[in-house]
Design brief:
GPCR_Rhodpsn_7TM; three-stranded mixed beta sheet; mainly alpha
Length: 313
């Protein structure tokens, strides 16, 4: 996979943080903390849900999928960022870059669709509660999860194949901190028209349509919440919905901006900030927003801790 039938090996030189050489150790510490927090938070959620039968419901089934995706997303992005920060030449090979791009794009696409499915699940639970168990059956949940994973992989495979057809120079300066489709397209020496069309098409079909469906789902959910008579229950429900919508908006907004706007107007500094939001910040926030603020999860965590204690003799 040395790329595009070129005889000389292709290298990418990451300069995402090179403009601030005195802050390299600070950036390293920051990204390490983010990675550890995302890894521990999502691993904890997965362990808690898997070990408590009371949480074996559609909502928590999708949460496990979300946690696995967040672990994949951060694991195939942040460790390489840490390596680049410590290295002197800031270089990675074409093969390493393509592998990171393929897996990261697959996880990104899948998570976009999964967030939409989670919104639809909450819509059915709150707006059609009497038919919830029938609509969101075990078979349906597994099928939905399988579809989003497969479609995410297909999108990633297609995007990666198109990247492999491009021609790159032997030495490429990549003004980013990990390999992502828009940043690689800016470095290509050959025509990227087809790539840009496919990127925008995929973004419209996946990102924008999923975001629209998620917003519609939460619109109906909020409408149902307004009918709740209890002020405390209404306040709690609104708080949860607001948190979920904040995370969803940040995630979708960052992806849509990066993969659509950057094809027309490239701003490396802004692109890096937006990429950090959905690639690094969101995986840290998801366990807190979706699970750790949930009483059922907290109770299950306490139960897990009690079971793990060594009996006193």
């Amino acid at each position: 996979m040395e790329g595009n039938n070129q005889s000389l090996p292709i290298m990418f030189y990451m300069i995402g943080f090179s403009n601030h050489p005195d802050l390299q150790l600070l950036f390293f510490a920051l990204f390490l903390i983010i990675y550890v927090a995302a890894l521990l938070g999502n691993s904890l959620i997965t362990t808690i849900i898997a070990n408590d039968s009371r949480l074996h419901t559609p909502m928590y089934f999708f949460l496990i999928n979300l946690s696995i995706l967040d672990i994949c997303c951060t694991t195939f992005a942040i460790p390489m960022v840490l390596q680049i920060l410590l290295s002197t030449d800031k270089a990675i090979s074409f093969s390493e870059c393509i592998i990171q791009l393929c897996i990261f794009t697959s996880a990104l696409s899948t998570e976009l669709m999964l967030l939409m499915v989670m919104g639809l699940d909450r819509y059915v639970a709150i707006c059609i509660p009497l038919h919830y168990s029938t609509i969101m059956s075990k078979r349906t949940c597994i099928l939905l999860a399988a579809v989003v994973w497969i479609v995410g992989f297909i999108n990633s495979f297609l995007q990666t194949e198109l990247i492999l057809k491009l021609t790159f120079c032997q030495h490429n300066i990549l003004d980013h901190f990990f390999c992502e489709i828009p940043s690689l397209l800016n470095l290509a020496c050959s025509d990227t028209f087809i790539n840009n069309v496919v990127v925008i098409g995929a973004d419209i079909l996946i990102s924008m349509s999923c975001f629209l469906l998620t917003v519609i789902s939460y619109t109906y959910i909020i409408s149902a919440i307004l009918k709740i008579r209890s002020a405390d229950k209404k306040k709690k429900a609104f708080s949860t919905c607001a948190s979920h919508l904040t995370v969803v908006t940040l995630y979708y907004g960052g992806v849509i901006y990066t993969y659509v706007k950057s094809t027309f107007n490239n701003n490396p500094e802004t692109d890096k900030v937006m990429s950090a939001v959905y690639a690094f910040i969101s995986p840290v926030l998801n366990p807190i927003i979706y699970s750790l603020r949930n009483k059922e999860v907290i109770d299950a965590f306490k139960k897990l801790l009690e079971r793990s204690k060594i009996p006193k003799r």
